[in-house]
Amino acid sequence: MARILVVEDDPDVLTLVMHKLRRAGHDVTSAMDGEAGLAAVRTEHPELVILDWMMPRMTGLEVCHAVREDPAVWRTRILMLTAKAQEEDVERAFESGADEYILKPFNSKELLARIDTLLARE
Q1: Domain for residue 105, yes or no?
Q2: Model confidence at 122, in pLDDT bands (50, 70, 90)?
C-alpha cells in the first residue's frame, strides 16, 4: 500500500489514525509537531501526509505551504484532519495547498475512503 505520514500532536488521535491506517495495510510513520512533520516529509517522501492544523512549533498550514514550495516534495498529497470548522478555515487550507479536508471528530471509514481517493489520483 502507501507510505503515509501522520502529523498530529494529540497522542490519542495519533494512535487511532495510525492504527486504522496500519490495519488498512499502509506503511505509517508519525511526527508530533509541525517542524518534525516537515522534516519527515523531506526525508521520507511519503505519498500522503495527514496534517493537524493546530500544532506546536509550526502549524499544519505552515507545513502545507512549505511542502508546496519545495520542488523535491511538492507533489505529496496532503489531507488536513482538524477541528477547525469555519468556512474560512477550509478555504485557507485549500489555498495553502491541502488536497482534502476532514473535520474532527471524524468517521474512520470516511477517512479511509478519502485516503483511498487521494492515493488513486495521478
Answers
A1: yes
A2: low
- Is the CB of residue 51 less than 8 Å from the CB of residue 81? yes
CB burial string 91-105: b at 16+ within 10 A, e below:
ebbeebbbbbbbeee
Q: Is residue 122 part of a domain?
A: no
CA distance 59 to 20: 24
The answer to whether the predicted template modeling score (pTM) of the entire model surpasses 0.85 is: yes
The parent domain of residue 61 ranges over 3-117
Residues 36-78: tens digit of each pLDDT? 999 999 999 999 999 999 999 999 999 999 999 999 999 999 9
41, 73 Cβ separation under 8 angstroms:
yes
Domain assignment present for residue 109? The answer is yes
